[in-house]
Amino acid sequence: MEEQCYALLIDAENVSAKYIKPVLTELSKYGVITYKRIYGDWTSTQLSGWKEQLLSNSITPIQQFSYTQGKNATDSAMIIDAMDILYTNDVDGFCIVSSDSDFTRLVSRLRESGKTVIGMGENKTPEPFRKACDKFTILENLMDEQEPGAGKARVQHERLSIGKIEDAVIDMIIENQDSNKGTGLGEVGSRLVSLYPDFDVRSYGYNMLSKFLEQFPRIQLVKHGHIVTVTLKEDQRRKADIDNYVVSLVKKAGKNGIELSTLGNRVYDKYKDFKISDYGYAQFNQYVKSLDHVKVEQDGTILNAKYHRLSGDRRQ
């Protein structure tokens, strides 16, 4: 797959220079940074911290004088440059680094043109700008990766949205169940970002989505090989009941076993809404093979399930 190209545009007047290394590292995860520009009034002493970072990180400074008191000329310069870059059509996306909501309309316009927009800003960044982006990253989280304890927004952010996130995941699982589909870990991650562009497991002290989801009391992660499925915990308790029922049927069938088709009919008769896809399986025989004490053997064109005592199992 060809690497994506991004234009990095930084509002120096609304973002601290201490974030530049984490910003570059984070954006490099998405693709190649082909434009690196930073905007501000470089005659102002307020931007002295940024000046030291420009040469070492190959960032092009764009001078914009503040012609009118109280008006942010930097915003206009960034917007004009962003549109110029858009019309060249030589980037796949933009990264707008600012804690200012004035760029909300710009982000929407870029996305309307089919470009991916990654926003980065401090936790104070207004909600409209966050929601306008495809993905929004809180800069304090990036700092916290390099300097544990440096992030200031974690507790507040967690209290505000963790309940909504759990509810959203449960809605995804139920929606997929209605369509007879399982819910993969990757799907949960991508859909959460679509719903909440500023969603980031680092806001909650985790570096992996799977570890973050394990804290929720109403959901459970089930691993089958390299595939991780997200399910409701009540589904797993129900699955244990079904597992025991299947094993009991196979055991009662004796040494000749029971045909898989007959076994399936018995299970579906007892559990009317049983769906093997809810537990990460595509076929009934795969599910049966996963059970302890059960072996699936082929006799001609017929598959039979037979009871099998495990090594060291003394139970009759």
TrEMBL record:
InterPro entries reported in the protein's UniProt record: LOTUS-like, NYN, OST-HTH/LOTUS_dom
Pfam entry (one): NYN
Signal peptide as annotated in the record: none
GO molecular function annotations of the record: RNA nuclease activity
Annotated HTH OST-type domain residues: 161-234, 238-312
Protein name: NYN domain-containing protein
Lineage: Bacteria, Bacillati, Bacillota, Clostridia, Eubacteriales
